[in-house]
Amino acid sequence: MAIEERQVEDLQGLLAEVLQIAEGAGGAFFWFRGVDCSTHALLPKIARDGMVPDEIFEREARLLTRFRQRSMAYWPSGYPQNDWEHLFAMQHYGMPTRLLDWSENLFVAAYFALASSPDHKHEGDCIPVIWCVDPVAWNRFKKKISEYGSTIQVLTTADDELEPYRPDTTRKRNKSPIAIFGAHNSQRIVAQRGTFFVWGNETKPLDEVANDVMSTLWKIQLTGSRADLARDLQRLGFGETMVFPELSYLAAELTRTEGWKK
User: Fold this and answer.
1) Quick one: which of 143, 167, 6, 9 has its CA closest to 89?
2) Residue 158 to residues 88, 166, 182, Cα–Cα distance (Å)
3) Measuring CA to CA, how many Å separate 200 from each of 45, 47, 251?
4) What gap in Å lies between CA 196 and CA 102, rounded to an integer?
5) Helix H or strand E segment including 22
6) In this predicted model, what pLDDT tens digit does every residue of 51-89 receive, in sequence order?
7) Cα–Cα distances in Å, from 86 out to 67, 95, 167, 190?
8) Is 80 exceeded by the pLDDT of residue 121?
9) Sign of the CA dihedral with 188 first, then 192, 195, and 199 last
10) Are 219 and 226 in contact (CB under 8 A)?
11) What is the dihedral angle through the alpha carbons of 134, 140, 144, 148, rounded to the nearest 10 degrees?
């Protein structure tokens, strides 16, 4: 089934739309991803320059090794990290990985959709978008995962089913991206209620893969004024430090809320 696309003008409409989708999906819980332009595909950073899967894994392995080598002095003494934990840290700090960030919080996604205006050019206007996914239904539908039984839900890095996706796997890699819980090894991931999709031996965007499966992915376009939507989100108390609990963002938030003008 194709992706379901919807449009709303304001945050009230967004909330109502998401609750309606959830009710129609039998009360499922959703993950959300906000993007500032509807033309952006759901594809992890490392797969955006056209490399084939073997090249992607080779590049990731080298980046992972170099990150581990160079970051040791920055971690608390004695803090052990496996490949997965390093991968989540790499994603957090902006390095290319096979991970794509999602959130359990709708308003975190809205913040990322509205926080900035896109600077790229294409035909037509850039419309901010909230993507919604049912991660349990997605994982259960994927053949290689569903073979483990109908009780499969969101995978963790301790699950055997995730073995074909591990950075150093020696098994045949699974093809389709799947939903996983990651290590909350940074304050940002905690604040953003971060979750992830990880790609296997596949270079298609999630939104293209979804066209071949049951309805587990929804695209909600925010057609109202970007500035008004961002202002309303701030009025709900969802400012910079809700997403980035760091001093630089506290300074930016206080400067904005105290009415400082350039």
Assistant:
1) 167
2) 14, 11, 10
3) 14, 11, 40
4) 5
5) helix 11-24
6) 898 899 999 999 999 999 998 888 887 676 888 999 998
7) 8, 11, 10, 16
8) no
9) negative
10) no
11) 140
- Token pair belonging to 242: 């809700």
d(CA 246, CA 244): 6
Distance from C-alpha of 74 to C-alpha of 166, rounded to nearest angstrom: 24
Report which of 205, 217, 197 is spatially closest to residue 30, judged by C-alpha positions. 217
77/72 Cα distance (integer angstroms): 9
Burial of 190 per CB tally in 10 Å (0-12, 13-18, 19+): exposed
**Angle at the Cα of 10 from the Cα atoms of 241 and 99, rounded to 5 degrees:** 50
* Residue 100: partners with Cβ closer than 8 Å, 6 or more residues away: 33, 42, 43, 44, 177, 196, 197, 198, 199, 206
pLDDT per residue as tens digits for the range 136-152: 888 887 655 555 555 56
In the structure encoding, which two tokens stand for residue 91, read together? 């994603």
**Quick count: other Cβ atoms within 10 Å of Cβ 120?**
9
In the DSSP assignment, the letter for residue 26 is T
| Residue 62 to residue 248: CA distance in whole angstroms | 31
